[in-house]
Amino acid sequence: MDRETQLAMLRDMLLARAFEERAAEEYTKGNIAGFLHLYPGEEAVAVGVLHAAEPSDYIVSTYREHVHAMVRGIPPRRVMAELFGRRHGCSRGMGGSMHLFDRERRFMGGYAIVGETYPVAIGIGYAVAMRGLPEAVICFFGDGAVNQGTFHESLNMAALWRLPVLFVCENNRYQIGTEIHRHSAVAEVYKRACAHRIPARRVDGMDVMAVYQATAEALGEIRSETGPRLIECETYRYRGHSMADPGTYRPKVEVQAYERKDPITVAIAETLPRYPTPEEIAAAGPDAIEGLIGAMNDAGRLTAAQLDALKAEVTQVVEDAVAFAAASPEPTLADAQAALDCNRNGEVLI
Ligand SMILES: Cc1ncc(C[n+]2csc(CCOP(=O)(O)OP(=O)(O)O)c2C)c(N)n1
Ligand SMILES: [Mg+2]
After folding, report:
1. 190 Cβ below 6 A of ligand 1
2. Fold exhibited by the domain 3-271+319-333
3. Cβ–ligand 1 contact at 64 (below 6 Å)
4. Which residues neighbour 23 within 8 Å (Cβ) at sequence distance 6 or greater?
């Protein structure tokens, strides 16, 4: 992987964490109403998957989708304004946290109904397949969504019609307060795909590089018209299910164990330059010393100063997003009417 991609992924993960923590703060201040499902701990999944995707791919996500939307390119200020329910939000203030949407960026929505993403994704996949385009649809869902009927119905159709859909399970081990072993007879989600002959694999969802690699491979296969794929990302959310949930059902040690595997800390460790030890230089041989140092410097990916600069930048982006959201007016009744009318006498063509 080239350094730019790795740095961009690190930046997006830092931004995701800062944005979500700030959203929590704004919620407690009363600036965000309704449900607010946050993503800290799961950043490596959205960032790894979406960096491996093409802009021409379609994304269908759940209600825990702020980070997916931002990695897809929706400006953080438009996302924050949507969380605030304001007119300049990406859904014009009429969707809120769970219903971010951006047709231009092919971000086909966050969906609040558990298991709702699959039928939407296969519908889009069907349209893509009919037109024979090299595009794919990425369909996110949680571990708690795999016991919905739509999961099996959609996987069956996707496999039967060889639809270009990548199913991505964000397995954070919990469906609200119910741990996966208590809601699923088969707790290894990827194994369920074999019932529909869909090639599937499990990856460490706390490792952004692993997620990126697995996605790139799967999308490559999908683009060669071999049908759908499924990836199960094992991840964890640090916070409760939503802001309304203190998450007391989880043992403290479990949360702490996952925090130790924090994907951002891991990504930083992987990008920090590691200079060769004297033993490695000796093992490489005298002729290779210059070459080895040069190569490590090229791959030597991040200085402490660069990291500080990245952190300062994302803090600024989040500040700007909040100021933008707060200054944006609330939508009017006329806006609501216009939104209702927008699709009258015509279907949405993607
Ligand atoms: C059909 C349906 N049933 C119940 C709910 C209430 N509900 C909202 S989120 C959720 C848990 C889903 O868990 P999971 O799929 O693991 O996603 P996570 O929240 O962990 O990301 C439930 C049951 C819903 N939104 N839709
Ligand atoms: Mg879950």
Report:
1. no
2. Rossmann fold (3.40.50)
3. yes
4. 32, 36, 38, 66, 80, 83
CA distance 115 to 118: 6
Which ligand ends up closest to the CA of 147? 1
Q: Alpha-carbon distance 49 to 166, whole Å? A: 10
Cα–Cα distance for residue pair 198/205, rounded to 1 Å: 20
**Closest to 36 (Cα-Cα) out of 325, 326, 244:** 244
Q: Determine the distance separating the centroid of ligand 1 and the alpha carbon of 126, expressed in angstroms.
A: 26
**What is the 170 CA–ligand 2 centroid distance (Å)?**
7
Q: How does pLDDT run across 169-210, given as a tens digit for each residue?
A: 999 999 999 999 899 999 999 999 999 999 999 999 988 889
- Phi and psi, residue 88, nearest 5°: -90, 10
Q: Is the CB of 144 inside a 6 Å radius of any atom of ligand 1?
A: yes
Tokens found for residue 54: 């093409």
Residue 241 CA, ligand 1 centroid: distance in Å: 9
Nearest-atom number in ligand 1 for the CA of 62 is: 21
Asked if residues 289 and 315 have their Cβ atoms less than 8 Å apart, the reply is: no
- Does the beta carbon of 327 lie inside 6 Å of ligand 1? no
pTM above 0.70, yes or no: yes
Q: List the chain domain ranges.
A: 3-271+319-333
